[in-house]
Specification:
Blueprint: H1 16-22, E1 32-38, E2 45-47, E3 55-57, H2 59-71, E4 76-81, H3 101-112, E5 117-122, H4 144-161, E6 165-168, H5 175-185, E7 192-199, H6 206-212, H7 233-244, E8 249-253, H8 259-269, E9 273-277, H9 279-290, H10 296-310, E10 314-317, H11 320-328
Parallel strand pairs: 1-3, 1-4, 1-10, 4-5, 5-6, 6-7, 7-8, 8-9, 9-10
Antiparallel strand pairs: 2-3
Helix pairs in contact: 2-3, 4-5, 7-8
Bound molecules: ligand PBG and magnesium ion (MG).
Magnesium ion binds next to helix 7.
Length: 329
């Protein structure tokens, strides 16, 4: 009885009710985090050409999107600012301004839609004139310890504005521990840290850099701080350190090409793992759909399910609202 023809794995697949009953993985709107881009002004929507279907919104529009997300069952938003160019400086000082675009968006969301979580990006690239995530020295090298100090200030600035989850995406060594200590000192004991622990120097970030306006500014590349796509053991060390320093959850980024990393992190550490299906991945799906190479909705849901199967608690995805609505339908 243990082999064909009595044994047929197609048997349990033969009807929809049975496929549902045997599904090993579930995907719900609760598994989605929706990244949103904030811009200055009132009633402003700026479409992003390299990210078709995604726009920057002024704060009022961001609040409207927060309502959409909450209604669709999405638990959390991730915010990124497009800082006006006259406020971008060598040291990214605008990141510390309590009234910067980011802080105003956080306050407006927490005021109008308090039931949704707000995750905020800690890194200086939307604020620097050179597009790097930290301070650069004369040779163009991004200085670790001096940057980490500013990132602590940026994280506190976001926490004071009401951020629920601080997400450092800068890849400086040691910053998670410094941020945790500073949050504890100021009494933000329930503000979480989701560390971009294994973030690779990837070619899939192009449309994001358009969205935050750093692409044209960026001098060189980010290979001295983001990881080499060749490395997996190093990702495990990065994760171990961030957990040791107090991260509540860890992120792997980009997403689909790095699901092997997700799986290894999940099996090794048994902690909440998230992944970022980044802008270039979104653009790839949109391009495939536009070219008639695949069905958009099916591509979206299949890829999101793949993250769950690999071990992700959740996925940051620009398709989040669309996907959540598909699931609800
Ligand atoms: N701190 C930068 C940051 N935070 C999130 C992304 C990429 C996200 C995406 O591509 O969707 C990047 C780009 C980069 O490292 O240059
Ligand atoms: Mg690290």
């Amino acid at each position: 009885m243990s082999s064909y023809p009595a044994l047929r794995l197609r048997r349990t697949r033969s009807a929809g009710w049975s496929r549902r009953m045997h599904a090993e993985t579930v995907l719900t709107p609760a598994n989605l985090i929706w990244p949103l881009f904030v811009t200055e002004g009132d009633a402003v929507e700026e479409p992003i050409a390299s990210l078709p279907g995604v726009s920057r919104w002024s704060v009022d529009g961001i609040v409207a999107r927060a309502r959409d997300a909450a209604a669709a069952g999405i638990p959390c938003l991730a915010l990124f600012p497009n800082t006006p160019s006259d406020l971008r400086t060598e040291d990214g000082g605008e990141a510390l301004n309590p009234d910067n675009l980011m802080c105003r968006a956080i306050r407006a969301i927490k005021d109008a839609v308090p039931e949704i979580g707000v995750l905020t990006d800690v890194a200086l690239d939307p604020y620097t004139a050179h597009g790097h995530d930290g301070l650069v020295d004369g040779s163009g090298y991004v200085r670790n310890d001096e940057t980490a100090e500013i990132l602590v200030g940026q994280a506190l600035n976001q926490a004071r504005a009401g951020a629920d989850v601080i997400a450092p995406s800068d890849m400086m060594d040691g910053r998670v521990g410094l941020i945790r200590a500073a949050l504890e000192d100021e009494g933000f004991v329930n503000v979480q840290i989701m560390a971009y622990a294994a973030k690779y120097a990837s070619a899939f970030y192009g449309p994001f850099r358009d969205a935050v306006g750093s692409r044209g500014l960026l001098k060189g590349d980010k290979k001295t701080y983001q990881m080499d796509p060749a490395n997996a053991e190093e990702a495990l060390r990065e994760v171990a350190l961030d957990l040791d320093e107090g991260a509540d959850s860890v992120m792997v980024k980009p997403g689909l090409p790095y699901l092997d990393i997700v799986r290894r992190v999940k099996e090794r550490f048994e902690v909440p793992v998230f992944a970022y299906q980044v802008s270039g991945e979104y653009a790839m799906i949109e391009a495939a759909a536009a070219a008639g190479a695949g069905d958009r909705d099916a591509l979206v849901l299949e890829t999101l399910m793949a993250f769950r199967r690999a071990g992700c608690s959740g996925v940051l995805s620009y398709h989040a609202l669309h996907a959540a609505r598909l699931m609800g339908a």
